[in-house]
Amino acid sequence: MGSRTWCRALLVSACVVFAGGSVGCQALYGGKPEKLRNPERKKHPEEAEEKPPEVKYVEECVANFRDDPKLVRADSSRSNALVGDGDTTLSQVSRAKDPASQAELIRQSIDKYRSALVKDPYNQEATLKLALAYDMVYRKACALALLKRIAALESNPRFKSSAKRVADEVADSPAMFKGYRKDAVSAVGR
Q1: Which of 21, 22, 101, 132 has a beta carbon 3.0–4.6 Å from 96's, enabling a disulfide?
Q2: DSSP one-letter code for 12
Q3: Whole-angstrom Cα distance, residue 184 to residue 59?
């Protein structure tokens, strides 16, 4: 190769290196990058208030709480024990995880309170607790029938003081029978 060809090759390679080096310093896609704007902040749409589901109470009760059980000999100690068992069962409802378990525990407590009333039909505590358990399963008519029974027991001189205490408890406690409070207070005669 001649000196001239060799010079020319050197010049070409220098141009390629120079051109390649100058291209390598430019931005990848050419020019300055554009500034990005922050997106506008949008307000979240206001959520409509959710209405609590309407509670539908059962307005009929097939149980008869009005009969006067004259032939039954009251077993107060066994009745009070069953009330305690019902209270224990009912206290477990809040710890149950699923609704089916909760319903089963409430059903068991209703059975225990009902058995307590079979053992001692004049047990005002069992009557009130059975009414409260019926309220938990939206059996309004049965709960009101039991509250009327408390008012009837109050008219009996033998049970007047304890029935009055239970009736006053219903009238003074706004947490009881929230869905039909007026009717409940009226049923106990207040």
Answers
A1: 101
A2: H
A3: 13
Question: What phi, psi does 40 have (nearest 5°)?
Answer: -70, 140
User: Amino acid letter at 153?
Assistant: L
pTM over 0.90? The answer is no
- Whether 114 contacts 84, CB under 8 Å: no
Are 139 and 119 contacting, i.e. CB atoms less than 8 angstroms apart? no
**Averaged pLDDT of the chain:** 80
d(CA 124, CA 153): 8
Domain map of the chain by residue range?
A: 76-187
Residue 180 DSSP label: G
Residue with tokens 């409070």: 181
